[in-house]
Amino acid sequence: MRFPLLLILDIEKAQPVVVEDSGGEPVNKELMRWRVNGEEREVAVAPNKLLLEVLREDLGLTGSKRGCDDSSCGCCAVLIDGVPMLSCVALAASYQDCEITTIEGLGAPGELDPVQEGFAEAGGAQCGFCTPGFMIATRALLDRNPNPTPEEIREALSSNLCRCTGYMQIYESVCYAIEKSRARTPAAVER
Predict the structure, then answer these.
(1) What is the pLDDT of residues 47-61, one digit of tens each?
(2) Contact 153, 174 (CB under 8 A)
(3) Judging by DSSP bridges, how do beta strands 77-80 and 39-45 pair with one another?
(4) Domains of the chain
(5) Among the listed residues 190, 185, 63, 37, the one whose alpha carbon sits nearest the alpha carbon of residue 135
(6) Residue 72 — left, alpha, or beta (φ > 0 → left; ψ -120 to 50 → alpha)?
(7) Which of 82, 113, 180, 186 has the fewest CB atoms within 10 Å, counting from its CB?
(8) Cβ neighbours of residue 124 closer than 8 Å, sequence gap 6 or more
(9) CA geometry: angle at 82 spanning 116 and 69, to 5°?
């Protein structure tokens, strides 16, 4: 069995480095920086690596899932500068100057985000595989519109697939999150 070569990078120079992958083939890697969940993170990765792969494999943030490999399920969704994006089709190198928020970054340490609480209390998470994508879509919706109509909720969730809940529990989880957010923010405008 062959192991990859161990790398020691000179961070000051930030030069591409040639390493061996597990198959013995040379791979060019570049030192890249991202702001993920409020923290600056720096990793040497191949320039063609997908954001989902960097998050899961290099940064250990396994909440976002690879569900379909064709950008149709939403399991891999993350917020990039507040906009939900599918990380399974996004080149990581393209988002170095952006704020990336994963499911792990929704709540403050020791405190659930209202969206997380809503999914826990209203049963929006069954097997849990699709839950991160739905929560990311919900957070993006509530950030831009704290008082969405039922139609706006359905539209915001429409690009995510769930094979367990039948969607009613997910919808109820979003409604719960809206009520929790209103309770935390008394200045929320009623429609």
Answers:
(1) 999 999 999 999 999
(2) yes
(3) unpaired
(4) 17-105 (3.10.20.30), 114-184 (1.10.150.120)
(5) 63
(6) alpha
(7) 186
(8) 118, 131, 134, 165, 169, 170, 172, 173, 174
(9) 80
